[in-house]
Amino acid sequence: MKPTQQTSFDKATFQHDVKMHLSATYAKTEETATSREWYLAMGKALAEITTLDLLKTEQDPKIQNAKSVNYLSLEFLIGRLTGNNLISMGLYEQITEAMAELGQNLTDLLEEERDPSLGNGGLGRLAACFMDSCAAQEFPTVGYGLHYEYGLFKQSFEEGRQKEAPDAWRGVEGYPWEVARPELAQEIGFYGHVDVEYVNGKEVRKWVPGMTVKAMPWDLPIVGYESDTVYPLRLWECQAIAPFSLASFNNGDYFEAQHSLIDAGNITKVLYPNDNHEKGKTLRLMQQYFHSAASVRDILRRHEAAGFALADLPKQETIQLNDTHPTIAIPELMRILVDEKGLSWDKAWEISANTFAYTNHTLLPEALETWPESLIQRLLPRHMEIIFEINHRFLQEVRKMWPGDGEKQAKLSIIQEGFNRMVRMANLCVIGSYKVNGVAALHSQLVKKDLFPEFNEIFPGKLTNVTNGITPRRWLKFCNPGLSNLISEKIGTEWPAKLELLEGIAQYATDAKFQKAFMAVKKQNKQRLADWVQENMGIELDTNAIFDVQIKRLHEYKRQHLDLLHILSLYHRIINDPSFECTPRVCFFAAKAAPGYHLAKEIIFAVNKVAEKINNDPRIGNKLKVVFIPDYRVSMAEIIIPAADVSQQISLAGKEASGTGNMKMALNGALTIGTMDGANVEIREEVGEENIYIFGLDVEGVQALKAQGYNPYDYYHADPLLKASLDLLTGDEFTPGQPGLLRATFDSLLDGGDPYLCLADFASYVQAHEEMGKQYQDQAGWAKKAILNTALVGKFTSDRSIRDYVNNIWKLESVKR
Ligand code: NTF
What we know:
35 helices; 10-stranded mixed β-sheet; 48% helix; binds N-(trifluoroacetyl)-beta-D-glucopyranosylamine
């Protein structure tokens, strides 16, 4: 065994440290401390161990000399750290005992931790899983993100409508796992102008910012699974440099100097709550530059401190851009190399273009970032010049490849021409990176074929795929101890670090005793969720029913409203067709809508209203319940996912880049009902088509239907069940005395043109549900399928994703310490 905390843990010292923090840090005695203070003191005592390991890792010459990946992301949706870190440190049992001796129950203390909700959804959660897998496999990594004061808003429902409240995730006491690193602070400029000087006849351009702020780093520990390696997740907080820049005050940038006072505290105040949608707000671009600039400088600081030459940057460091949000890091590195370090453009470009790699996470046009040229010009004048220069040189290549083809130039240019010229961040990323990857096989194919076909020609081999993954430590071992123990009894305890081993339980898929044990664990997990719902929502649930789950951000392309239509069809049939037999089910939703996304909020309202009626209708009884769990977040997912029988992955084919909830639920033994979209395609490949319910149009089918001209009314008039289900939304069935309150959803699906083809996929969706419902009545047959789902999704460990990045993109070595 590797020497880990487990082997050197001293209980008495730990207990002493907890008590010390209770009094010295939180001013409480053992008698007066609340659970929260006990949790905080315990967290502090544990964080002391990880901070020490973080410093040891950071100062280890083996790490300093090895190539590292720098993962730049505006979002890290890490979830609660305490429970998971205890598992990684191998201290779960010891701390349970140590705290019990202090009169504290660990499970209760863990509930005191607020989720650090520093991300919106899949993109941010992926970044968190990736950090875990880098540390688990000891690939040298630094994560760079933002230290938002407010994370994603808290969601509640008032009369069925979403209400948002700010989430001060650190609480008044601060977050016990974070440590400030003031010695690593950076100064970041904005606005101002570019000075031109001539040195030995050579033009030297220098940016003189009009406003400067401070970037203060906070490190969170990313603990390697069963190792002492701890990497930093470095989150930058924006602080004002008091009082403000006198230089810019005096040289006429008076207004911009004032800006510093107003904006500095604002830059990292709040996470933008949009998922798969960019709104183009100035403050968001400021966040992006602030994050990129602080991170690039920290990378260069480490590189130079280790004694390496600038020319060796690509040998020592790689910078992975998590979507286009940190794109401005590219011109920032160029600016530093050319303007500050005095390198020639060509030398600087060679370094930069071999250091950056870019991950694309979406094809949705509304999510592809473009920024007004005028805004970048004002906020970052020197960067705009550099972007022009990059573009100018690139377009020369385009002209060589396609002489005289103006259309190609217009399409590939970083600048989108028009009345308001826009900077296309994705184009800049592709041009300025050495590799570009999509996040699932189908998605990466579409990136090559539909999004960047010309880039794929001009840069052969640059576009590639890395299928997403999830960390099995959080998403099985920690969140589903019952199933974890069952698995370990059969195949040993190595699987959390080698998920392919799960295949070893496939042989028990038809073993009646194992099936019973597997289903008993599922039942316990369903009971845990049912208890939560009873306690928090006052709804009583029958755990014999199918637990059917759709949990993800609310978005039309994800089609929660298709799920709703199916529920309406069940309601209609239960009431109107006495011969209709349906397997009892509970339909769970959990989803936040972006505060400015009107229709998404209307869909939430519609589901809540339909749920209210159905759950209280004696004609329906226990045949159907609908539960919309408020405030979806990582810690809630940890309760819902282990309890799922059915995983809904029903996006319109071609729209969901990958999905990762699909992987989490399959791993926990849920059967997927899904479209041929994102990673569903690969899940089907792994588990076999008899163990998944695939329905609906595929990408080609979608394209053909759209080409032929799609009219939702054709389906509405042709399918009586569909019509009856939809029509329920127009009256006052669910909003007594107030007809028409749910019309927004109805309208979007008919007069609104149904952009995501819900009506076209309805019939085959209903059919897939019927098959699935029948199958559930054969519990042994169901158990077999569920077990095979768990057994056969080992591919989707994020350890494998990270190895793909390491082998095909980052080209670095694991450093065992
Ligand atoms: C999301 N993209 C995709 O919508 C998901 O399908 C995917 O699983 C995750 O990324 C992780 O790759 C975004 O959130 C964004 F911002 F790119 F739109």
